[in-house]
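User: Sequence for Short transient receptor potential channel 3 below. Tokens please.
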Amino acid sequence: MKFVVHATSFIIFLGLLVFNALDRFKGITTLPNITVIDYPKQIFRVKTTQFTWTEMLIMVWVLGMMWSECKELWLEGPREYILQLWNVLDFGMLSIFIAAFTARFLAFLQATKAQQYVDSYVQESDLSEVTLPPEIQYFTYARDKWLPSDPQIISEGLYAIAVVLSFSRIAYILPANESFGPLQISLGRTVKDIFKFMVLFIMVFLAFMIGMFILYSYYLGAKVNAAFTTVEESFKTLFWSIFGLSEVTSVVLKYDHKFIENIGYVLYGIYNVTMVVVLLNMLIAMINSSYQEIEQIMKRLIKRYVLKAQVDKENDEVNEESPRNAPFSSFSHPVLATGAIVYLVVVGDHDGVVTCFGMKKGEAVGSDVMYEIEVPGPPTVLALHSGNGGDSGEDLVFGTSDGKLGLIQITTSKPIHKWEIRNEKKRGGILCIDSYDIVGDGVKDMLVGRDDGMVEVYSFDNTNEPVLQFDQMLSESVTSVQGGCVGKDGYDEIVVSTYSGWVTGLTTEPIHKESGPGEELKINQEMQNKISTLRSELEHLQYKVLQERENYQQSSQSSKAKSAVPSFSINDKFTLSKDDASYSLILEVQTAIDNVLIQCCGSHSTTLHFAEVNFPISPTVQELQMCILVGDELCVFSSRSELEHLQYKVLQERENYQQSSQSSKAKSAVPSFSINDKFTLSKDDASYSLILEVQTAIDNVLIQSNDNFLLATYRCQANTTRLELKIRSIEGQYGTLQAYVTPRIQPKTCQVRQYHIKPLSLHQRTHFIDHDRPMNTLTLTGQFSFAEVHSWVVFCLPEVPEKPPAEECVTFYFQNTFLDTQLESIYRKGEGIFKSDNISTISILKDVLSKEATKKKINLNISYEINEVSVKHTLKLIHPKLEYQLLLAKKVQLIDALKELQVHEGNTDFLIPEYRCILEEADHLQEEYKKQPAHLERLYG
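Assistant: Structure tokens for Short transient receptor potential channel 3:
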């Protein structure tokens, strides 16, 4: 709607410009050498500099648009504002309008002062009979006697330029039209080609201009016309000849100098052929080619420019979502409303809101929000139920980043929540949804893929409620899921693609066959062929892997080998879990992970990898004896074949060890090794030298300083591509969490990912709060901008967009996921108000915001109102949680003693019911306590 209003306003403004010149369309009656006055003593310039009512309306319109541009410049910042060329055009156009009206006003002031002099000192009724001072007499002259620097002349020239720029501003809306859009887009896309053409054009133009000037500069006054006799005349003649406005006689001399005249004819002819026939036609061909290319993709570009124009004018906040958060999901679906097809465009953002837009076919009305729907988490995927919207055609299935699943009926009037599945098993976020009848009951089942590798199949009962039928865990996050018949006719399958590119199939075909005792298991020929084919393919792949490994080793050991750092991508997610008030860090790599180093609030930790140890060998030695200590024997090898035999035995023993370690009966033991270390101060360079020596090869060394609040290294098992960590933070302590990810690739390389821990890290955005709670208030006032106070809020609280909103005043609501307290944030330019029922939240905000303001040397006036009732209220919120955790810890401590009594006595009849209940629920209590071992410590600090 804002886009339509803006376009309408600008069209009215253009109408005012046309109406202001309407009286001059048929010509003017006052010639430049004639003056017209209303009464004998009136000065002519007073009449010509007066503002009409249309000019006053134009001035008001210009001031309003300039205010809008200044506001946009303030909100977006100079850099973002200048990057959009239309903003530069708007600001320049409005500045020229203001300069024109300013010059016009100065001319009016000067004419008014002259009129005041005449009214005060001239007694005669006719000014033509009076001799006036020159500075007063000037304002009675007709236009033909005005000075070139007269303010009114400058005003009229600037006004004309501004009018041209104003009408060229229509080009911003032209791409939305299917007729004019391709032409303008084509011109815009050929700017580079036009620039290249202009370089060639200027080179040719300068060459002929200077050459013709040098040829005819000696014949000033000796030519039929003044063409080419000066640089200015040479420029004018050649420029207008492009359009056929120069004469052939421009090269003719009055004297009989045929040699010069013939050279002039030849050069002038070559210039016209080069410019008109070659260069201009080449430019036309370039533009025509570009236009045809644009016409082929016209519809897609039209839609793109329509949406771009709307978004630019509405300051839509869709782009404010951070790429670190879950991306928004969208889809469109046609419904019938009031006799016309209306496309419902549904968009889900990272704040847990699903927005429904309405768009009519052939008419962009996407700026009208039909309604918003709050869902239990940030929606990551939206899909039509059963692929077609269900029985009503309006059912929408959504999945959230915290693993919840739901169904909403999207109508043209209001949304209807039908069902919702909570994530009771704490599984991963939902990335993809599909519908397919995999069970075979005639009703399409719902296939769900999660980012923890879980694939789920939901069927629907008689009440259309989803029921989990099957689930399968994969080792990587699922990026796409689809149902169909792929491998064998008659057996439905689920095809799944994962993050690293694997495609996995889950089939309904039986893969196990059973036989009774004494019965022979018969395998048909088809199965035997399949088994033999798989075996041959596996052997072929193993052979290729060994061959490629040998080639790589040979190339890496070559003297000409070049080492390059391999690149790899990391799929990471750092989100706050509302259920247990902890952060979940998920790291996924397309290759196996070797180790991950987690470090927070310190820069003194690093990981050193030693991939290979090379011993230098003198190149002058022809025969080399190698001594190797094997067990207690010293073996001497004088030939390379014996050494290769030993290497083969070592590799064979290593394979045997790996096979035995993977056996179910294998017992794992931590190997012991000794370290020869030395930490000494070097006097020469005043530094400490740390020497570490081990009897076996060193894999990595972790150097740690006491400045780190968190430092941990995770060694991953073989073929691990996904790692999920749970991290608990303490509000008031903030910093940066860094994850150093090292994959199992050669040469060794590492990537660093950074995640910001906010001061109020356990707070989560919500849409409603309880305003009846006792609240403490923190008020900040000072000379700070809206962008600065917004950056402070972004620094303190999660889930706040980094880009400042377009509104002048913003309100955000937050809820503490650990204590269930709440926070209300209201801020604008020069003022910030924060309300919370937890006084600790107010204290943290005061300290952090004071530090941030001090860094920017901004003086803050801080005032706060403490509500004593809020302390009791917060303790009431904490008391049930604390009591439950204390009771849980007490029950867990009693379990071992009660089990011992049960073994000693043989039964539990002698125990009171409370203790018997503890024994019956022992496994559940221990499991719950194990999930949150430090929950009690977090509650009492």
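Residues 2-172 form one domain.
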